Structures are given as structure tokens and as C-alpha cells.
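# step 3/5: fold
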Amino acid sequence: LGDALQGGPDAFGYTFQDSSQPLCGFQFVDLDMLVDELELTPAGEGFPSNDDGRSALLPLGDFAFEAYGQLISALSMSTNGYLSADPNITGGDFSSTCGVDPDEDAGAFRSNVLHDDLISAGGLRHPTFEVCPRPADVGPANQRCAVFQWSGMGRFSSSGIPDGDVSFQAVVYPDSGQIVHQYRGDLPGSNANADISLYRGPGQARLSYSCDTAVPLDQRAVCFFHPDNQPGAADPAGLRLVTPTLALDSIGAAATAMGNVEFQVPADTACGSRYQLHYRGSTYAGGFEPGSAMFDIDVADSDVCEVVTSCDLDPPAAIDLNDGAFFDPRRPGNGLVSHVIPRGQPGAAPEFFALWFTGEQDRQSSWLVIQGELIDGQVSAPILRFVRDVDSPSWSVSSSEVGQAEVRLLDANQLVLSWRFDGPWQAERMTQLFAASGAAAGNPDRTGAWFHPPESGWGLTVDSFRLDNVEQDFNLVYIYDAAGQPRWSLVQALANDNGVLPALVGQVHCPGCAWLDIDPTLQVAGTAQR
């Protein structure tokens, strides 16, 4: 490994460090005298259960945790040194693979703690702790944890006696998403045939600490950190990213471009502090390239650091985003209708509210809500999906968090929407729909989100504009179908149109999915009256 004692991020944002670094501690939680051995099942006929065997699927209950956008509610332990969320695990995958899917048991998330052709002489164990004996490295130290331990492990030998004597464990902290691998002892050859990694699932890249590489592990911990809970950074709310997005000119093939990222640290930053900047990725017309870099910003130690308190900095000019519809001109048929709502209190950040008119994988329409504070031209907020309870005797809707979103303003007419559901981050650069066509604000200007207060949860968005001296309204109705699922329809009208208007629906591409031209699929599905 050389100096590669920390690594990542992977495409999802996970990073790792080991206990040679100050932010990952080693504290083995010895379970041998505390917990009974688990009953094991052999992978097939002719194999003893301690060789190519597995535990039952172990339900985690309140200790379920999120990994790679998936809720991991149960895990099985293989005698070959890995944890798997695959309910069909055999435990028989004895051959480590590097950078590709495992040969077996590849159907779901895996934590390869010490994946090799192993035999157990001391058993496998699993308890949970309301206060973990090993303090967490990120977040509160006294978090809950689930521990999975392999004892008396060695490499397979024809004698049936393990070659080596190693105990190792995985410690999972459900509140922070941190996963820690800890080791007592080494396999022969300094673990040269083993794989230590996180595996996301079929066809997905893994984050590897070591694979088929000799590395001593005795008295070592390897800490994998969730993207939302990275170590060593001060309060992320305190770091002011003045330029959250860089707008670059066209870049030719194999060419480069330079840009400056401006940031401000809090006034109370101490010498020796650390911050981290994550490169989310790059958007271009019609596409997105995920980033894979993370930059540490270390404030020097006190012997070469002096705190200056008389530094006057001009705040960045606020971007006054226009209200209305935004879309990617290369991928029309999907976009945001957003509004910036001032707060009444002096100095309070304005509220960003957006309805995301999009689609599902079957091309049915769907809408989502993104709402959060707009601070320094950026928003970080959950993505909410609303459904209607059609069995309720009165109007009833509920919301659930289905993902995360980040919105960054480029200017009054452009923004970047980044999102993550159950996979890596994706993004689109969006332009105001009618400004892109040279339209002006409408008169009358009905632009806004409209709803009926007694039935909050459905309504109408209006974007009024004037194009070629014609006053028009772009109306999107967000409603629910008979099953209570969120749907939307398009009602295009002149500003002075009244009465019954056609409501159009079409086939819509889902976020990040292949683009489908909505226009040929539009058809009248009903009417709206104004």
C-alpha cells in the first residue's frame, strides 16, 4: 500500500482511512467470552459449515443502516470473511476478485472484511450495543453499533486445520453510516490473497483498501466513511463556499480549463483545523460527468499559524433568480418550476421552493418537491414525494424523503440541479424555459405556485411570458391518479383564454434516464377550466 493509507471518494462519495491516520482509531471489541457462536450452514454438500459456510440472515431491526442509498436491514456472515445483504447468499465465495463483481454472492451490498478462502476454528458472532464499546470516529462518540466478529480464522488447508490464527470484525454505526474493519493477527503472507473493500452491488464499482496485496493488518483498523459524515472537517455549515459552481467556456477534447474556487472559513477557525471540499462533478449540455476528488484544506498548526481578526471581506453579490420553469434544452420534457420566497425576518435566508416535473422508469409522469434555504446561491434539501390516501374519508396526503438535492445558481436565468436517489450523484444544467427563447415576463404576470388551502398538496404552477408580442401562460397541474400517485399534466393557454382547456399528458423520461422526446407522445387526457 505504501502511503495509500487513505483513499476515495468512490462515485458515491465513500472514503477510507486506516488507524495509521489520526481520524481512525483501533479498539477491538472482543466478543469471544461475551456472545455465543452463531449456527452455520454449509454452502453445499461435502463442505463442513466452518468452511464455505454462512450464518442465517441476521435481522438488524433498529440497527438497520443506509449504505449506497440502500437500507440494509439484514446481513449474513460468510466464513470466507464477508458480510452480505443478499438474501440468497451461500457463503461459498472463496476467491477474492479485484475491481469486478465477486464470483459468487454478488447480488447485493457486501462488506469484504477479510475475503479469502478461510476456515473458522473459533466461530462467528454478532451482538448489538446501545453504546458502542468502540467510540465512533465521526459524530457523537457514544453511538449505537452492530458488531460482526470472525474468531480463530485461517486460510484453507487440506488438513482441515486453519493456516493462521486471525480474529477480525466489522463494526457498523447506523447513525453515521461509518463501517470499521478491525484485525488481530495476520494471515500467512501478510494477507496477500485477501480483499478488503466495500462492494455496492452488481455492476457497480467497489471502494478497495487492499486486494491481492500484502499488507500487515495486526492491530489495525480500516474506517469507511459515509459521504454525509466525513471525518476531520469542521462544521460544514460554517464553511462558506463563495463559488459553489464554476461556469467555464467550451473545452475542447483533451483540453483543460482553469478556475478559482473561493471560500471563507468561520471567524472562530482555530489553527490546526481541517476542511474538505468535494468535487461533485461537471455538467454540460445534455449530460453529467461525476467527480471523484476530495480536497483537504488544512489550517497550519499554531507554530506557523496566526489568527487575524481584522479581515474585512466583501460578501458575494446575491443572484436574483427569476421565478418560473427551468429545463435542459438538450433534454426537454422534464424540469423544475422554482420560486424564491423572501422571509419576513431581517437577515433570514430566503426559501427556495421547486416542483420537479419528471417521470418514472415506466415513463409515467411524476412530480417531486425540493424546498430549503437559499444560502450563498445554493440549496441543500431533501427530495420529497407526496402521495394521496384515497381511502381516507377526508383529503389526506403524506410525504416521504426519497433522495437528496442540491441546487446551485449560475445567474438569474440558469441553475444546476444535482440529485441522488439510490445511486451516485447526477446533475443537469438548466436554463429558464422562456428566457431561452427570448421571451419577456408576461403582463399580466401570474407566475407562481397556486393551490387550494383546504386541500394542500395539489395545485397549479404558472409561468407567464410574452413571446412575439403574444401573452401566454405555461400551466402545469400537479395532481394524483386514482391510486393516489403523483401525476402532472400540461395546460398551455393564451393569457386571456378562459373556460375549458385541454389537459395534455405524455411519456416522460426519469431523472438520469435516456432522453425521450415528449412532444410526439402528448395526448389529451382531460380538461381544465379557468
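# step 4/5: annotate
The two ends are 68 Å apart (CA to CA).
# step 5/5: archive (pending)
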